[in-house]
Amino acid sequence: MKLTDNVLRSFRVAKVFRENSDKINCFDFSPNGETVISSSDDDSIVLYDCQEGKPKRTLYSKKYGVDLIRYTHAANTVVYSSNKIDDTIRYLSLHDNKYIRYFPGHTKRVVALSMSPVDDTFISGSLDKTIRLWDLRSPNCQGLMHLQGKPVCSFDPEGLIFAAGVNSEMVKLYDLRSFDKGPFATFKMQYDRTCEWTGLKFSNDGKLILISTNGGFIRLIDAFKGAVLHTFGGYNNSKAVTLEASFTPDSQFIMIGSEDGKIHVWNGESGMKVAVLDGKHTGPITCLQFNPKFMTFASACSNMVKVKDEGEVKLERSVFAMLLA
Predict the structure, then answer these.
(1) Is the dihedral of CA 214, 220, 224, 226 positive or negative?
(2) Whether the predicted pLDDT of 305 surpasses 50
């Protein structure tokens, strides 16, 4: 099935999961689209089966916490950042729940983590104003860049270059093989005092870059020229929440959740809004991603939903939903 405006309008919530007792801070689909893994502020890692639509396994990272979880290319392994004790990145085998390696170096919270789509390289950005380049096979940082402000960063789909968003006003493109020589392209954007950049993603065809903010708009720019193609707004984000924006796998549509639990979808070429979907969330949708292989996407909200349990009120849950066409 091909994604069209009408197909996107037809998406409905197929499954709602309430496995977590605190905010789901991140999730990631496996490259084959068969599973999705989530990290939560309740220190849990939950693995879901996308085809059967049910949780498969729950692991815990009680001591260090868990955030920004990402699949690696090896089956059953992930990397994630810590949100307790230290700012070390951890490499975990899901198979036996054992750490394979630690990646120490950042001195403040890691706010961006991107796995290379082609090999064992990954990059991280931190509030310590650095971007670090890593290889899964070594605990030592392979490269270090000092920036002027909070970074957002991501690999392009071919794994040859990465983009860094700096100070919420410029995008710098680096060649992975010679990044120490500095950026080969810098795109300066109009600075907006009302918000800051919270994420940066390439489209799967490598032609577009999506910049998300904690304000009421996201920007789509040309990955080669840096020109702003569209600015998408009209969704609610009055409390400066970090909302995740995503492309569909065909690079044609852009989507983001809003603070009222709705999901807004635009056509990337025309810039027109094509759908507003009900994600069945009662609070801001902070995580949103499309499955890379199947016609489904997932959303998670940061709000606690009060559920009655055996006559007792206030069993609180964070909601994770899967939507199907």
Answers:
(1) negative
(2) no
